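Hi, here's the filled form for the chain we discussed.

Project: internal
Contact: R.S.
Residues: 404
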Amino acid sequence: PLPSAHSIALGVWLRHGTQDEPAGLGGMAHFLEHMVFKGSENFDAYSIARTFDSLGASVDAFTTKDHIAFTLNVLPEYFTDSCNTLADMLLRPSFDPAMIKLEQNVVCEEILEARDTPEDLLHDAFASQVYEKHPRSRPILGSAETVRSLDSDTLFHHHNIMFSGSNIVISISGCITPELIQVVRDQFGLQGNGFQSVAAEKTDAPFTAADEVTADAKIVGNRLEIISQIQQCYFEIGNKAVSFMHSDRVPLIMLSSILGGGMSSRLFQAIREREGLAYTIYNYSDMGRDIGLTSCAGSCSAKRLQRVEEIIRNEYASVVNDSVLKQELADNKAQIKSQLVFSLEGVANQMLRAAKDEIYYGKFQSISELVEMVDAVTEDDIVRCAQKYFNPDDLLVATHGPSS
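And the returned structure, exactly as it came back:
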């Protein structure tokens, strides 16, 4: 509850992402995310869209490798009708064959768009190599082949598995009341112990989308290169890393911030500010439930790529060999703690944070707990993580652009 808020944010989350898909159905989770908007037992696709618009509700959905989420922001007076529509489309979709065919065209266009987006294609190819045979290597969108293979029977079968039991997490924040909470319980059938669970299934069918994103790549050792006649060369330079449950999670986030998290970070200063080699340069960590990766990403002219890579390797080696300055560590602790507090502002952020805490950790993590974890990170922790995840000899270098 946020007494000062004037709106409500509701999230319906599934503990099921693309890494949980049967291998022969890559892209099915994302396609289901689309299809629940395309008609239900009580509303056709246009009625769903018009109802939300007429109530001033903002509705969104997204699929990740770890989960699927459907979010709703609305004023309290329109909450009951909005929640009713959301529950009906999520729990009672129609999966009309005509709408399936139509949406297959839409999603296949989305796949083509991603393949034409240099950063997206490169990241999917990079992740495919880093994660190897792990299901997290699969592109979220899947392939046109698998999307075209989906029919109503398949969708109904996997909808019953995914939209059921403890697989569903509902998060709500804002100016909520006990009456509105009861609306959610009634509309989603949350009585007693909650949802009825349905057992998941596995299959050994082949998966092709991970191969598709590297089909045009030249892979030699720790280097992946996709030649394309575009203006810039996009790059990812990184390594396999940790899950969000690993003890290195916080120091790794802090190390990524020190290297390429803000305007004063090492790589931003060295590459953009001192030598003017690139406009975009940053570090990030992608943490899943049992594995993750960490990377430096950006873009530059092909003729400057060699120098950019040299600086990245040098900065990595500097942390490995020489540690970090006390003030540098203190500054980044302040930055990360500030970002934690900023992330609490707004009803949508509160809803997102509560849901992710439940899904990832099974409990709500207070800000004081997180601040203590940040404050506990030492210079030795930073060096240890640098040696383990940023060793210049262990990096995968992936590029997409004109040949240098």
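Let me know if anything looks off before we file it.
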